[in-house]
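Hi V.,

Quick status before I head out on leave. The structure for the redesign project is tokenized and pasted below; the design run finished overnight.
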């Protein structure tokens, strides 16, 4: 059953890449009752999904327009691209933006120097390198603020 948004329209998120991040996100969205289609080239990658995962899976190459058509990207509200290859991610993002007019595209990228390329195309990015550096900087600042240097937890 498709979940509906406030306007009665079924909302769809397509995720490309079923590694640790993609599978975790797909499971979380599915658990929240969201409509998810998850694409990966390797069918075995779908084993990372929870038994409760209620979304769809598609084995295929997301740089191939036919695979994106099969994933119904033309009706997707969100595309999240989290493969382990920055070049692949930008190629899929460009294809989605130009051919499918996907409203929201979010990409993981590893090389922070490539952010400007994504920004030119209006694509939102998450960079683990940059996010980790910021988190470590905060932890260092938090540690410096505690007189005895003892702290618990992390990000």
């Amino acid at each position: 059953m498709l979940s509906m948004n406030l306007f009665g329209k079924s909302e769809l998120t397509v995720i490309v890449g079923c590694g640790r991040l993609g599978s975790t996100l797909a499971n979380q969205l599915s658990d929240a009752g969201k409509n998810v289609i998850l694409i990966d080239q390797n069918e075995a990658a779908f084993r990372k999904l929870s038994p409760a995962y209620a979304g769809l899976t598609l084995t295929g190459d997301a740089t191939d327009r036919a695979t994106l058509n099969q994933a119904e990207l033309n009706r997707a509200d969100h595309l999240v691209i989290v493969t382990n290859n920055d070049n692949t991610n930008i190629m899929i993002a460009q294809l989605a933006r130009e051919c499918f007019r996907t409203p929201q595209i979010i990409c993981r990228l590893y090389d922070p120097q490539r952010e400007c390329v994504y920004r030119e195309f209006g694509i939102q990015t998450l960079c683990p390198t940059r996010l980790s550096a910021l988190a470590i900087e905060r932890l260092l600042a938090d540690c410096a603020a505690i007189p005895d240097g003892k702290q618990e937890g992390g990000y």
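Above is the designed sequence. The beta strands are 12-16, 35-40, 56-59, 78-81, 104-108, 124-126.

G. will cover questions while I'm gone.

Best,
W.
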